[in-house]
Specification:
Pfam families: TetR_C_11, TetR_N. By secondary structure, the protein is mostly helical. It has helices spanning about 15-35, 40-50, 55-60, 65-75, 85-100, 105-115, 120-150, 155-175, 180-195.
């Protein structure tokens, strides 16, 4: 009969430690969105996450590492573009997801980090990595649309800037919610402009 010494005991994936880390990261994103990267304190993170502050210190002795991990942890939702074969619909859904993400504590944290150039090199690198992921996702989808003849040849980075810029503006101004009508109009105008100005063979 095996006595358990043949191999190390299996560890449960996740578990309490993973849940605690997730709560701390979520609390960090929310507090940084509210107070800025320079303004948040470990004590507030611990209180918001419902953990002892030693849990925060133990996992992240460096506060910048905590901010960077919080940014990277929540970045994936803002960096994907579906491919249904309909470029107009896919870009509309991307814009709605982007606007929704920008309205979350994480999105506000990211926006703050983008526009505060005095942040640490580690934070700037994390933000650059997140933006690069978003640009790469848009480029893959746009390049596929060009290959299929859905779009004329186009600079995918330029297209991404043209459609995402208005979403950032509307959300950041906070005057009204960003709606599907907004997304449809933005994508429709940009794609119509690209097609109208494309060089003809």
């Amino acid at each position: 009969m095996a006595n358990g010494t043949d191999r190390p005991p299996a560890r449960r994936p996740g578990g309490r430690s993973a849940r605690v880390r997730a709560r701390i990261l979520a609390a960090t994103a929310e507090l940084v969105a509210r107070d800025g990267i320079a303004g948040f304190r470990y004590e507030e993170v611990a209180e918001s996450a419902g953990v002892h502050k030693t849990s925060v210190y133990r996992n992240w002795p460096d506060r910048e590492e905590l901010v960077v991990e919080a940014l990277l942890r929540y970045a994936e939702d803002l960096a994907s573009v579906a491919d249904t074969g309909d470029i107009h619909r896919d870009l509309v859904e991307f814009l709605l997801a982007l606007a929704g993400g920008l309205e979350t504590p994480f999105g506000r944290t990211l926006e703050q980090a983008i526009y505060h150039t005095d942040e640490s090199p580690a934070v700037r690198q994390a933000v650059a990595r997140i933006l690069d992921q978003r640009v790469a996702a848009t480029r893959r989808r746009v390049d596929a649309a060009v290959d299929r003849g859905e779009l004329p040849p186009v600079d995918s980075a330029f297209l991404g800037e043209m459609i995402s810029g208005p979403a950032h503006l509307i959300v950041n101004r906070g005057m009204r919610p960003f709606t599907r009508v907004d997304a449809e109009r933005i994508v429709g105008v940009v794609l119509a402009g690209l097609r109208a100005t494309a060089p003809h063979a």
